Input
Amino acid sequence: MMAPRPLTSRPMTAAIPGRLHRAALLVLWLMALGLVCPFPPESLAQIPFQETGALNTHVCRPVGTVDPGLRPPSQPNTFSAVRIQKQELSLRLDPEQRYVAGQVSYRLGLDAQADELYVDLNRALQVDSVWLSDQPLSFRRDTLQLVLAFPIPGGWPAGQLFDLRIRYAGVPPINPNGFGSFMTARHSADSIPVLWTLSQPYGCRDWWPSFQHLGVRADTTILVTDVPLGYRAGGPGLLTRIDTIGQRVRYHWHHQYSMPPYLLGTAVSRYEVLEQKVPLSTPGDTVQVLNYVYTADTALAFPRLRNWLPDMLRLFSDWFGPYPFANEKYGHMQISIFSGGMEHNTMSSMGSWGYDLMAHELAHQWFGNTVTCASWQDIWLNEGFATWMVSLCFEDIHDNGYWFLPWKRGNLNSALRVPADTVFVTDTSLTQRIFRQRTTYHKAGFVLHQLRRQLGDSVMAAGLRAYLQAPGIRFGFARTPQLQGFLEQACQCSLDGFFRRYIYESGYPRYQFRWTSDGADVWLHTRQLEPEPSARPFAQRLFLRAYGGGDSLNLTVDFNGSARIDAFTLPFTPDSLVFDPDADILAWPAEVLGGQTSDAPGGYTGFTATFKGNSLCIDRSMALRGEARADLYDPAGRLLGSRLLNDQSLYDEWVWPFAPSSGWYVLRVRAESQFFSRLIPKAP
Ligand SMILES: [Zn+2]
Output
């Protein structure tokens, strides 16, 4: 395959003068073809999807069961009206017991004068006392909230800071509408206890008195965990002190970055420690990394952390700006959740040590933690980015790019399985919907990859850096239109149509390409078949690749929603065209019709082919006449083999000595004066 060359593209009216008449006839011919469409749509059942393997492990956490009875709180003060200057949690924890006891202190203010203050806290936890500065405060309980009455006529004034202290204890409830909130388990052959928290999206209240609604952040967080001797407890920021008192140990964590409550987490177990000092690309910039790993897993995890994490940190810092919490640390604390993880600020909780999980949780420190979605409707601003950023690692630094194409195919095909779903979440009451893998992760991640291909790397990076750095957004919250605004500013273009079609609306396009050529001159007719022509189009840059005589060349078509004809002059005579050869467009498989000759009208495919085990089964249609030669190319574009098709039969079975690996193959069939080319999926 040859490297891409500059494309020669000209409108039909600028065709080579001597060929003008013939070109005009070809246009008429192409337009006439558009009137009929005997080509049957691709069977959706043919689309392969990888359900297992590495691609399926880059989830944040497993999807939980759902209790539709639990709804997010609606009291007004929990909607961004609380300003937390400082929060300090002092908790007594023992991984042998599902129990928490402690005190939470706040220094906070209110945006508006209020008679009462609503603190999120599940009724399963008992409140011992509440103090406003040094005065005991009366309170009442709702199912999910602690309601405090200010003993001041007219209520507490806006903007005036006050100190609040709540002592509490109890057995945290198992939250069926979340990911566990507060969990205990045992791990390894020695059955060692572990305890961890995981509050996203509505689980803070299950283990501490909190203000868990998105919109609230705490400027400073101190977490002090008192655990039995022999255990370590992870936390946010810097480990400033470890006190041993008799048979107990206290870990003091100080975090000086603004953080939403759901990103505060801890994990307690018997851990081995791996400390790393990672230099970034900028001389002098380093990141301290602290890892808490089960003893039984150190042989697996330590080499991976040493080999993988530094390159990930450098790559993300190069793309999006230096690691955001460089003054403190990054790290991991191992937990026993199945395969997933959680991006707690500066110390991700890890259920396993897979490459994509490690990259995914690190990516969140930029997208999710530095900038947090302002509503769970916009969760893709967290998860879509973390999913997409794994692809950057697969492309640039892992296994020589081997996993990049499988990542694209896997996410693309997963998204195509849910054509009726939107990335934007309309019902945030169900955790299962917020964190739906095929939309929030796979579709959103792929849409960001697609956006990157549409805009180019430098524009994409500039827009995202501006977004991450923007005052009010950095260490704050954002919604989808804000991201769109920064990207539009970077590209000096409108992304309204792209965001509307791929983020807010459902469905995918199916494009049709009909082409013909005269030597190296190619005329290409492009239109959108699905959704129905009356629906809003998916206008975007489309990618194709022309093959011929052992050469290939990339072509682009700027599709604006209306059917169009483009003319190209190639450096070779093409014999086939393939749509989206590198899997960069979220669309149904396209119809690519036509070829060199005009006596094989577009609309006839010549053949269909499917993989069955070690065999490639080829069915000729009546349109394919006489002796024909078939060439099969693998997903990387390499010629795998050629054979003559039996002209006495409509059926050929091409048996291979091995089962071909999964991916998209190109089968090209050439008969006398006829040429056909098709993409053939091979499922895993
Ligand atoms: Zn995630």
User: Anything to note?
Assistant: The first strand starts at residue 8 and ends at 10. The chain has four domains: 18-269, 366-504, 510-596, 607-682.
